[in-house]
Write a structure and sequence with these properties.
The protein is built from eleven helices and twelve strands.
């Protein structure tokens, strides 16, 4: 990996510029890594890792002794400029996340943006990505929308799910095992006409998958003890009447004001008026209530 060269006319000298390599690493099974990724990590001057302890296990497994430095959400403001300076000084840096491809639901995108702004060469070393792997297991067809992790706050989360309800694309998202049952129940309320694939511990020894109508999977996993990060893939919606979120909110607010209703009675009335699933309407009502717009 020879460095790129840049001419500085005002200084009348040539300076070497390194390359930032975006290296995909295994999401579970250590065998899921490319020969190119191993070579790049061996030849790089430095590896910037989200968790150095986690990455050191991978490096030890393959006998890679390249120096490690941490780069994560809590130090990216200070560590980012430092890494850019080292790249500008001619060092080659391999950026890795804890699992999968950097830039998806981790701070890697910030460093990549800094590199582009600084005129540093950026090169992708493709490989595993949990969302893509889960999609390949699902058998769902259609264009894709990657959401990542849902908001933790109930109001924001329900509002996002309601906004996603009219989506005609396959939706990929990640979820913590602690919040999986709750999230599936909320998805069943806002997007009842979809199927879902849930996979936990993807590529690992105890990998498990569930696939079927989202309401059925939500009931099946309601009291299950789930461990390990989960990936969810939602199919394109089955043929159904799709009401835009703004229109549904407007109908709820109008019915609440004119009929003096609230809660499930309000949801029942609006669902009957629009001829759509009551759960979809009730989830929108809960999001409005969390914002203080209805009682």
């Amino acid at each position: 990996m020879s460095p790129r060269w840049r001419l500085f006319p005002t200084r009348f000298k040539v300076s070497a510029i390194g390359t930032l390599y975006i290296v995909a690493t295994p999401i579970g099974n250590l065998e899921d890594i490319t020969l190119r990724a191993l070579r790049v990590m061996k030849e790089a001057d430095l590896i910037a890792a989200e968790d150095t302890r986690h990455t050191r296990k991978l490096l030890s497994h393959y006998g890679i002794k390249t120096p490690l430095i941490s780069y994560h959400a809590h130090n990216q403001a200070s560590r980012g400029p430092e890494l850019i300076r080292r790249l500008e000084d001619g060092e080659n840096v391999a950026l890795v996340s804890d699992a999968g491809t950097p830039g998806f639901s981790d701070p890697g995108a910030d460093l990549v943006a800094r590199a582009w702004e600084a005129g540093v060469r950026v090169e992708a070393i493709p490989g595993p990505a949990a969302g893509v792997a889960a999609l390949s297991l699902s058998g769902f067809k259609g264009d894709i929308l990657f959401v990542g992790f849902l908001p933790r706050g109930e109001g924001r989360r329900l509002k996002l799910l309601q906004a996603l309800a009219p989506e005609l694309r396959v939706i990929i998202m990640y979820e913590s095992p602690r919040r999986l049952a709750r999230t599936l129940t909320e998805i069943a309320g806002s997007m009842p006409h979809r199927e879902v694939l849930v996979v936990r511990e993807l590529t690992k020894k105890f990998e498990e998958t569930w696939r079927g109508p989202v309401a059925d999977i939500a009931r099946e996993l309601q009291h299950a003890e789930i461990r390990g990060e989960c990936a969810l893939v939602l199919s394109c919606p089955a043929a159904a009447v799709m009401v835009p979120p703004a229109d549904l909110e407007g109908c709820l607010l109008k019915a609440a004001k004119e009929r003096g209703l609230s809660g499930r009675r309000l949801a029942d009335q609006v669902a009957g008026d629009l001829k759509i699933p009551r759960r979809q309407v009730y989830q929108t009502y809960l999001a409005l209530k969390a914002e203080g717009r209805v009682e």
